[in-house]
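Standup notes
- DV: blocked on the single-chain target, sequence here:
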Amino acid sequence: MTDFVNILRNTLDLLLIAVAIFFLLRFLKGSRAMHVLYGLLILGGVYLLASELELQAFTAVVTQLAEAFLITAVIIFQPEIRRGLARLGVAPLFQRVFQADQDLVQEIVAAAYQLAAQRIGALIVITRQTGLKTIADRGTKMDSVVTSDLIVSLFNPYSPLHDGAIIISDNRIVSAGCLLPLSEREHPKEFGTRHRAGLGITEESDAIAIIVSEERGKVSLAYVGEVIRDMTKEQMARQVSELMATITEK
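- DV (later): unblocked, structure below
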């Protein structure tokens, strides 16, 4: 019985390590920290080889450098650490599923494709579990019913609020002209500031970002740091409905 418990404990231990490594690699994928991780793995391999060959001077230097790196890494990779902790706070374990407000979804999607048809760029952010109050407070505060006409008018090139993003929270437009954090990951060269901003806000929160390309007249959807490009109106409505259906249990 004791042997079985030990085997079970060791199996669980290895499983947890494997899961942790999987999520770490998934989170770091495409970020600048991933390149550093590759370098550390190579250095770690060299260190193990030096230890086997009993190269004491080299192993001592690497050990000292590793201790210093742990301190500087917290400062250098502060954005990645912040995003990782934010992701932990929005785990699906603490969510439940509701029916999305289809009228709201249709108004948002209709506005996005109307803007795309007119080749007017836009960035629409819909909050889910993670609040964006700090970012919303820096924009122009609003408390408006979500309608396609209002969204289109906000992004009209002659509108003083056409730059930046609008934020929709609790089925209301709460702010416009908001500046969002830009993604620091590697993306296709054709991605401009608007796409990088849409990706950036979804890397730091569980928000949804609908991105309308001014140059191509296409609509894309960003979520959890990934983007689905050039979606049809039907695809967008279905995807947004599914993502908006999961909300925080209060």
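- Follow-up: The chain is about 55% helix and 15% strand.
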